[in-house]
Amino acid sequence: MSTNPRPPLITRPDKTVPVTVLARTTAPPADAFEIIAPIDLATVFHPVFPFPGVTEVRNQTESWDHPGPSRTPTFDDGYQATERLTEYVAGQGFAYELTEFTNVLGRLAAGVRGEWSFLPDGDGCLIRWTYEFKPLRGRRLILAGPFRPLWRRYMQRALDRMVDVVEAR
User: Fold this and answer.
1) What DSSP designation does 133 have?
2) Cis peptide, bond prior to residue 7, ω within 30 of zero
3) 11, 149, 161 from 24: Cα distances, Å
């Protein structure tokens, strides 16, 4: 994947907490990618206890189709984060970093690297989405323990909604 010239949030020696979800769609990888990469976050990130939904995205600097642009997802609890697109390979995958959380995540993680892959799967596509948390010092056990299964459920519900959007087109 093409990379942004900024130094990456996560590097090889970092001890991260990854969370991965998968889903299949009957759409080919390029079609699923074209729908999901620019998707309106508020339509698919609904609240799933204990996590808030996304209400809007503000301050998008450029189109979401190349490394470099940033935006500010705002959550229904009033908190927000900064999201920056770091990698983008049309039809195959993209990656981004989330930092500057104003909610509890800001006290647990220095940031998150999100990565999407759209892989051929028979006549359709297997979508793999990974969130890789970079814990703050002393917070890894919280993220790897009670937080991880709750976050996996949140991600899976959002991914399932995205697949519903893909299948509807």
Assistant:
1) E
2) no
3) 29, 21, 12
Q: Which residues are registered as beta bridge partners of 113? A: 97, 132
Q: 139: which 2 tokens?
A: 């917070």
Q: Which amino acid is at 41?
A: L
Select from 109, 63, 61 the least CA-distant residue to 90: 63
Give the Å distances, CA to CA, from 132 to 11, 63, 113, 121.
11, 24, 5, 24
Q: What is the Cα–Cα distance from 113 to 136, expressed in whole angstroms?
A: 14
Q: Are 55 and 72 spatial neighbours (Cβ–Cβ below 8 Å)?
A: no
Task: Extract the tokens encoding 133.
Answer: 């948390």
pTM: predicted TM-score of the whole model, two decimal places: 0.92
For the segment 30-49, what is each residue's pLDDT rounded down to a tens digit? 999 999 999 999 999 999 99
Q: How confident is the model at residue 5 (pLDDT cuts 50, 70, 90)?
A: low
CA distances to 50, 145, 156 from 149, in Å: 12, 8, 10
- The letter for the amino acid at 4 is N
Give the separation between CA 112 and CA 115, rounded to whole angstroms. 10
Phi, psi (rounded to 5 degrees) for 15: -95, 100
Q: How many C-beta atoms lie closer than 10 Å to residue 102's C-beta?
A: 15
Residue with tokens 């989405």: 129
**Is the CB of residue 1 less than 8 Å from the CB of residue 89?**
yes
